[in-house]
């Protein structure tokens, strides 16, 4: 037994990088390694875009637009955002599992930034969001979807959607830290996500809806995001829906980051 | 010698349930304190407060002079925690688990790797270093968990029931690892419901039950509270039992107890081995058929039974649940 293993002074050498950032990146790395070792963790975000596209395009396409090809063009921005909304719930489930397994007790007993485990989780979820959008766009292109605004605008559309998803994921961070079980996270998540995604311009244009629902749909943050993405992929107004999207994203951060941090500190 | 851990009047409530009712304890630097008690006694709550996971509702606690509430961040840099559940990442390898903790301590990539290697070797995990932790046995996971809590060479280590759920062989192995840590000078607060474990590892013990300290001292001091040694004999026949009582009565310091069913005789005695030899001499040639004879000192199970009126594993598990 080598006594050298334990006896040296307990000095912890520090590196000059911002500690909170470094620790969040370390924990994001951990989550990415976990995804790499169990690729089935990406199954939901890989299959969902395909299933949703097939369902809506071929089941409703003929009835709604007369021709499924026309409907595909309208639908892609909607499905892109919708599947992203569902993908953000995963973070709540993952955090809830970490807490149940005691992994968070370890993090909380370490001299690290309080925000690091949560920020790390949000950062690593980028892998899921990018997977979701890549699968969807590749599948849509294979079916004949084409953007009319050029690749830089399409890239911007993906970035805007990604940024919004990262802000929205704080809602599910908070839910994941607050409710008791992973199953409950999904229950609460679907309750919140269903009206927001279906009560938007994802599947149909707002003016086809009854008045009271139009009022909801036009003020729904998901609608603003879909309209932004649609504008960037297919043309149409971008500035106004983008401003709304940015505003909603900022509001989500302002409300749910503090709530999540408080829940994290209190969770026992 | 200074105290590495000082706890005074610690109170913790969970709603209507009072988990701790004013616990006092100290752990001298470089020693092991065994915190003993049945399920639900409040052991885990004490550890969670000392490791800054829970805030106390009353009293105070200091680790190496640092307050666990007002100086929580500094406390975290001098402690290591191994909880009841092996808090390792199942999909990461043993090596990755330790390197991750090293990097969280900002040891740098190279130093984290070196430190992980040292600890894997020390805890006999080198061969399994590159396997995902989910392939590890229960004992290996616990070892990895303890290794993770030692990355930054903590001055004070909390081990919350480190051998619960392990098979007897893994338990013995774990005891050796813990004994090694102590010889390196780490201060340890160990909770356990296994009295044998505390007897073997701890310098001093604090026994808590239902949130209050009910006894403290060394193992010998606790045993002395319960009473002295006993001579236990098993004989071949009921008649032999009567004969043995007659012969041995002069050695007894209190009334002997006899059980005709098991033909067992228990005599409270003094004088240790000499008394045992004397008993054997008295029985020699008496015709009493002696099947078994032994001198028994009280163990901590007796201590617990005497102090609390119930045995260590006979408690309400629901209360410990609430402590989480």
Structural description of this entry:
The complex is a heterodimer of chains A (268) and B (324). Chain A is mainly alpha-helical and 268 residues long. Chain A has one domain (41-267). Chain A contains twelve helices and no strands. In chain A, helix 2 (43-65) runs antiparallel to helix 3 and helix 4 (90-100) runs parallel beside helix 8. The two termini of chain A are 37 Å apart. In chain A, 40% of the residues are buried. Chain B has 324 residues and is α/β, with parallel strands linked by helices. Chain B folds into two domains: 3-223, P-loop containing nucleotide triphosphate hydrolases (Rossmann fold); 228-297, 2-Layer Sandwich (Alpha-Beta Plaits), CATH 3.30.70.100. Chain B is built from twelve helices and 14 strands. Chain B has a six-stranded mixed sheet, with helices on both faces. In chain B, a hairpin with a 4-residue loop joins strand 12 (257-259) and strand 13. Chain B starts with a strand and ends with a helix. Mean pLDDT of chain B is 87; it is low at 315-324. The interface between A and B is large, with 37 and 48 residues.
């Amino acid at each position: 037994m080598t006594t050298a293993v334990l006896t040296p002074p307990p000095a912890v050498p520090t590196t000059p990088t911002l500690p909170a950032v470094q620790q969040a990146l370390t924990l994001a790395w951990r989550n990415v390694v976990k995804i790499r070792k169990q690729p089935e963790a990406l199954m939901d975000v890989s299959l969902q875009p395909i299933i949703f596209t097939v369902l809506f395009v071929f089941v409703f396409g003929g009835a709604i637009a007369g021709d499924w090809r026309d409907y595909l063009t309208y639908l892609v921005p909607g499905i892109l955002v919708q599947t992203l909304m569902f993908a953000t719930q995963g973070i709540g489930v993952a955090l809830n599992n970490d807490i149940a397994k005691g992994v968070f007790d370890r993090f909380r007993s370490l001299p690290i930034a309080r925000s690091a485990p949560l920020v790390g989780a949000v950062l690593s979820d980028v892998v899921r969001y990018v997977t979701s959008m890549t699968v969807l766009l590749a599948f849509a292109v294979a079916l004949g979807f084409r953007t009319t605004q050029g690749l830089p605008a399409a890239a911007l559309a993906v970035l805007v959607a990604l940024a919004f998803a990262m802000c929205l994921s704080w809602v599910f961070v908070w839910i994941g830290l607050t409710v008791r079980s992973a199953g409950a996270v999904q229950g609460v998540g679907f309750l919140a996500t269903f009206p927001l995604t279906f009560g938007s311009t994802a599947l149909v244009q707002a003016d086809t809806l009854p008045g009271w629902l139009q009022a909801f749909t036009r003020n729904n943050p998901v609608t603003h995001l879909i309209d932004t993405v649609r504008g960037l992929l297919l043309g149409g107004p971008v500035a106004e829906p983008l401003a709304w999207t940015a505003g909603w994203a900022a509001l989500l951060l302002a409300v749910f980051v503090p709530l999540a941090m408080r829940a994290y500190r209190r969770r026992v | 010698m200074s105290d590495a851990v000082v706890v005074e009047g610690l109170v913790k409530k969970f709603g209507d349930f009072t988990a701790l009712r004013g616990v006092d304890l100290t752990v001298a630097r470089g020693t092991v304190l065994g915190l003993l008690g049945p399920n639900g006694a409040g052991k885990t709550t004490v550890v969670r407060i000392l490791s800054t996971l829970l805030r106390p509702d009353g009293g105070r606690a200091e680790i190496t002079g640092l307050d666990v509430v007002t100086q929580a961040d500094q406390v975290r840099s001098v402690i290591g925690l191994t909880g009841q559940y092996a808090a390792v990442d199942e999909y990461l390898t043993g090596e990755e688990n330790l390197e991750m903790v090293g990097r969280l301590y900002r040891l740098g990539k190279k130093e984290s790797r070196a430190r992980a290697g040292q600890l894997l070797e020390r805890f006999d995990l080198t061969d399994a270093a590159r396997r995902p932790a989910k392939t590890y046995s229960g004992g290996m996971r616990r070892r990895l968990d303890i290794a993770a809590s030692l990355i930054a060479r903590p001055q004070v280590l909390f081990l919350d029931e480190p051998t619960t759920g392990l098979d007897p062989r893994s338990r013995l192995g774990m005891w050796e690892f813990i004994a090694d840590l102590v010889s390196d000078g780490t201060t340890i607060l160990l909770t356990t419901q296994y009295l044998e474990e505390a007897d073997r590892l701890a310098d001093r013990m604090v026994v808590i039950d239902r949130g209050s300290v009910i006894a403290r001292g060394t193992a010998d001091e606790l045993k002395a509270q319960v009473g002295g040694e006993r001579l236990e004999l098993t004989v071949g026949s009921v008649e032999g039992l009567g004969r043995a009582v007659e012969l041995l009565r002069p050695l007894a310091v209190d009334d002997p107890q006899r059980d005709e069913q098991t033909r067992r005789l228990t005599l409270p005695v003094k004088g240790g081995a000499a008394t045992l030899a004397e008993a054997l001499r008295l029985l020699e040639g008496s015709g009493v058929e002696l099947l078994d004879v032994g001198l028994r000192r009280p163990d901590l199970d007796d201590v617990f039974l005497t102090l609390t009126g119930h045995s260590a594993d006979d408690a309400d598990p629901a209360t410990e649940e609430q402590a989480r």
